[in-house]
Amino acid sequence: MERYKAEASQAESFEFAVKNSFALIKLRDYINNPVSFNQIWNNGYIISDLHIDMWLQEDYSFTFNFLYIAEEHNYNIIPLFNDIFFELYFTDIVDEALYEQKLQKNCPE
To answer: How many CB atoms lie within 10 A of CB 54?
Structure first.
């Protein structure tokens, strides 16, 4: 019985690693696509400068957040690869509020 549990645990760990690897490869492909993060709507880019700046911060883990969302979507990630998703649904509202607060603190008007 213990051997079965160990094998099941190893299989789950392997499946988790494969799913995360697939998700990261697809994320890399999306990011490397020249049209990603460049789509325009209503005379402006869909993804805001605020979000791009926020994602590029050293203390923001874009990859971790993406893997968390991928797991929430049971790794059905292909529909997620569009600028509207990244602008409207990717960034947690709390993270955004904290980043805006940090910006206000560093750049008082």
So the answer is: 19
